[in-house]
Here is the input.
Amino acid sequence: MDLRKGRNMAVFCGEIAVESKGEGDILDITGEVEKIVRGSGIRNGIATISVIGATGAVTTMEYEPGLLKDFPAMLERIAPKGLHYEHEKRWHDRNGHSHVRASLLGPSVTLPVRDGSLLLGTWQQVVFIELDIRARRRNLAIHVIGE
Here is the structure.
């Protein structure tokens, strides 16, 4: 076991902005995140990617046409648009399902960094998923921690 006692950890903060087309839009952000990780100067550690907002999500997936259809279909089965959501009584914005879906998926993902790059599988990409009912401009915070 290598505990590397006495080493200082570094933290690098970056941000990217994305434009979504609205509900169900899945954007591959791997390249932008990878650019920030490389620019951080951190060789080994972790990178956390978080969306700033309550109706977006970040995860990993194989970014391919079948999953781009399967994923929104799965969300519709789990938290359908047509159901009654208490959230809508307060705001009347018809996006109660968006908040439920975002809470289930989560706002962030943390990934290992090795040798200055994200450690991803061959077919694994980092994606932002828009869950709100309208097009949005989103900011995503990327924090790289390590040495």
Observations:
- Strands lie at 10-19, 26-28, 45-51, 56-61, 108-114, 117-118, 125-130, 137-146.
- The helical segments are 30-40, 65-78, 87-91, 96-105.
